[in-house]
Model the fold of this input.
Amino acid sequence: MLLTRDLTVEWDKVPDTSGGIPAGMIQWRIKDYEEAMSKDKPGETDQVGNPVVAKYMLLMHLEGVAPDEAVGCTKTEYFVLGSNTDPMMQNAQTFYDAIGAKSWKKTLGAAQVPWSSSIVATANSSVGAMFIQQVTHKVEKSFRGEIDESTGEVRKFVQSNLGKVYKIGEMAPKLIPCGIKECNTCDNSGQTGSGAVSAPSTVSPIPPMSPPVAKAPAGPPPVSAAPAPKPVSAPPLSGVKSPGGASAATTPAAPVPPVQAAPVIPSINCRVCGENVTLEAYPSHLEACMAKQFQQEA
Done:
């Protein structure tokens, strides 16, 4: 079947790889917002018996500003503000009770956005504001159970975990290589990955004091050691020319197969239960967590 929709493009502008968000302290700028509805689940009910319906949701689009390796990276934060009993968030109490409102407030606070009693005015004034967020990487197996044909095992992916937010000045934007050999986003040469496991401390640790070196007591002068015997010459290595001799044939070493970089699937830690889920599944997952929390608070 031939294509029917044509478009004039410049292929040089298409990135060679999809890449991902590098690990480290990333500086984001709030680009814009989008209103949407979360996915409904016909026939299902939450833990208090309310039908699970589509709810009003706010999407905050972000763009990377620093360090240089993060420029051009984008991500979206999802804030579910409606509920199963008030899906369109018509009552202020629904907004106060929403987990999404608490998460949005935390992000706006890190971006130092001025508060307004109007959420529209607050959102509008936040466009262009910036904050720092910790991003770490972690290897996860495919949640769809996809098989890697080269190994016959479940495929593994390098996921970006979006963590704690900071104000500008509290943390400096910088890369913290994850140390994962399958990662094609970080420069992991010589890295162990210790910097991408947890958030760096804002206070540098105090190095331990070295104990004083005790002076050796005065004693008799040292006895001169006997001269060491001359080393015995080792037999020439294969392929290395010996003095006056011909070089032996060498067998070339088998080439080491390159490590195939794993694709990066953006994910996020749930702000309610802490579980790491893909960005695609995050809205539905957050709905379930919110319902569970409402049940516990009821």
Summary: The helical segments are 92-97, 99-110, 119-126, 282-297. The chain is about 15% helix and 25% strand.
